[in-house]
């Protein structure tokens, strides 16, 4: 067993998202979002679960801040529900909603915990979807207005502003495969959504720069580590194509100031990208203080040979429509285990690889891991404890993988475990538990799992015992 020591300055945090924990969806003037509509549509979520009550965090936020303090964390990543602070997505702001986040932010600051606020973790006001959603350019302009409202109210009390969480999911799962809200299956709309999310990021980023000049600016991407099934040219080209859709469609405009040429060429049969206007790409490339990276598992692809049975084991849910626009010749292969309860393969070295790639391509860009964690079928033992050894093992290996990347020069400054609490896991409802703290959904009682105790020790000491792979 090797030992890794993290410096005092390294940030240990936990992450959540509004719709997954808050509940109280009709309280104090909150308007409906696409996730309310989607989860209330029969057949969309496992067991018909919705976020109506979730972990009741809207009422229990003070207790939850207590857990963050007791864990000894130095940062908390949460998201602001757009429909809570601006119910219709344009025009009038809702003071009661702003007050909720203002209390939360002040509560964190009083406890010495850095607020890391995500502006958009997938809960688009329904009115904006009715007007075209992310496929419409107007939505990016509305996002700029929303950003000005919340940054104006919370300003630099928020330590780090994150514009978007995983725009890959918003665009492709929301508009191409339809396994996320709003559940559309329109490939051209998905690519338009990619661009309008990027544009929203650039516009909101500039709002942060202007209204909260001392706050840090970030975005969170779920970057894919894509491996070829063989070294053949065709398989390597499959990797290139998926890398363009998954990674470079966002990294390109955000960090290089332009869309990659191969992405535009690959998708020419679906769209001519005429929704990208003169000057947009430069606008999107607002410099970031820190790039947020979410990582859970890796991806294995091969070029389809035209005869083998198709394989779509990409880990992104079952749908008859693919999220991979214009990539019909690519197969996603099942990976060797072990797996989490999401069916995702456990591949810590891929995290090291990802961070080193980012260091190579963007050497001066600081990073943080804004999500990493695992769902397992937790069991409450007779002693009332949850001995979630597999989750501890997952966390230990991934934090070790991050440490390996740091040792090789990757500038990773923080780590946020997903998640603080068990919560509404989107299409999988309450069936999949990611928390280091268990939530009993009948009573809303919170119970620390063994992983919470383990994480508390790590945050306190900075000492990680690495098990050899
Ligand atoms: C990410 C999401 C987060 C959570 C985890 C498991 O894609 O950002 O909300 O659902 O996956």
Automatic annotation (TrEMBL):
InterPro entries: GH, GH_1_N_CS, Glyco_hydro_1, Glyco_hydro_1_beta-glucosidase
Cellular-component GO terms for this entry: cytosol
EC class of the enzyme, as a word: hydrolase
Catalytic activity line of the entry: Hydrolysis of terminal, non-reducing beta-D-glucosyl residues with release of beta-D-glucose
List of residues binding substrate: 20, 121, 165, 296, 418, 425-426
The keyword S-adenosyl-L-methionine is annotated on this UniProt entry: no
Record key words, sorted: Carbohydrate metabolism, Cellulose degradation, Glycosidase, Hydrolase, Polysaccharide degradation
EC number(s) on file: 3.2.1.21
Coiled coil location: none
Gene3D superfamilies, A to Z: Glycosidases
Keyword Lyase: no
GO biological process: cellulose catabolic process
One Gene Ontology MF term: beta-glucosidase activity
Active-site residues, record numbering mapped to chain: 166 (proton donor), 371 (nucleophile)
Database matches in Pfam families: Glyco_hydro_1
Domain of life (superkingdom): Bacteria
Protein family (similarity comment): Belongs to the glycosyl hydrolase 1 family.
Protein name as it appears in the record: Beta-glucosidase
Organism: Micromonospora arborensis
């Amino acid at each position: 067993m090797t030992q890794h020591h993290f410096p005092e300055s390294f940030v240990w945090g936990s992450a959540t998202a509004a719709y997954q924990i808050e509940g109280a969806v009709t309280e104090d003037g909150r308007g409906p979002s696409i996730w309310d509509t989607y989860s209330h549509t029969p057949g969309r979520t496992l067991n018909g679960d919705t976020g109506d009550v979730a972990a009741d965090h809207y009422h229990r936020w003070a207790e939850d801040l207590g857990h963050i303090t007791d864990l000894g964390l130095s940062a908390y990543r949460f998201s602001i529900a757009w429909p809570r602070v601006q119910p219709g997505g344009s025009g009038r702001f809702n003071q009661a909603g702003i007050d909720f986040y203002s209390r939360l932010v002040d509560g964190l600051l009083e406890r010495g915990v850095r607020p890391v606020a995500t502006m958009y973790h997938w809960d688009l006001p329904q009115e904006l979807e009715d007007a075209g959603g992310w496929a419409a350019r107007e939505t990016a302009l509305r996002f700029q207005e929303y950003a000005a409202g919340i940054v104006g109210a919370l300003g630099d009390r928020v330590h780090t502003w994150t514009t978007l969480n995983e725009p890959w999911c918003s665009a492709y799962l929301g508009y191409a495969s339809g396994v996320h809200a709003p559940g559309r299956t329109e490939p051209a709309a998905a690519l338009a959504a990619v661009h309008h999310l990027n544009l929203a990021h650039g516009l909101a980023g500039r709002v942060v720069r202007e209204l909260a000049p001392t706050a840090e600016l970030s975005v969170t991407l779920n970057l894919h580590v894509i491996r070829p099934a063989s070294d053949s040219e065709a398989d390597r080209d499959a990797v290139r194509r998926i890398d363009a859709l998954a990674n470079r469609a966002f990294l390109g405009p955000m960090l290089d100031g332009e869309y990659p040429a191969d992405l535009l060429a690959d998708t020419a049969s679906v769209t001519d990208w005429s929704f990208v206007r003169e000057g947009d790409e430069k606008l999107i490339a607002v410099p970031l203080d820190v790039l947020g990276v979410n990582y859970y598992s890796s991806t294995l692809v091969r070029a389809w040979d035209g005869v083998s049975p198709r394989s779509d084991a990409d880990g992104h849910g079952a749908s008859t429509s693919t999220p991979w626009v214009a990539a019909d010749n690519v197969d996603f292969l099942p990976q060797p285990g072990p797996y989490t309860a999401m069916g995702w393969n456990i591949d810590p070295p891929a995290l090291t690889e990802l961070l080193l790639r980012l260091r190579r391509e963007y050497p001066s860009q600081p990073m943080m891991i804004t999500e990493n964690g695992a769902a397992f079928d937790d069991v409450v033992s007779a002693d009332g404890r949850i001995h979630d050894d597999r989750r501890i093992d997952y966390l230990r290996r991934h934090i070790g993988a991050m440490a390996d990347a740091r040792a090789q020069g990757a500038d990773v400054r923080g780590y946020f475990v997903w998640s603080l609490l068990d919560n509404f896991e989107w299409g999988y409802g309450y069936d999949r538990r990611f928390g280091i703290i268990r939530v009993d959904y009948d009573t809303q009682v919170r119970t620390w799992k063994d992983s919470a105790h383990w994480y508390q020790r790590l945050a306190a000491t900075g000492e990680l015992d690495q098990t050899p792979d």
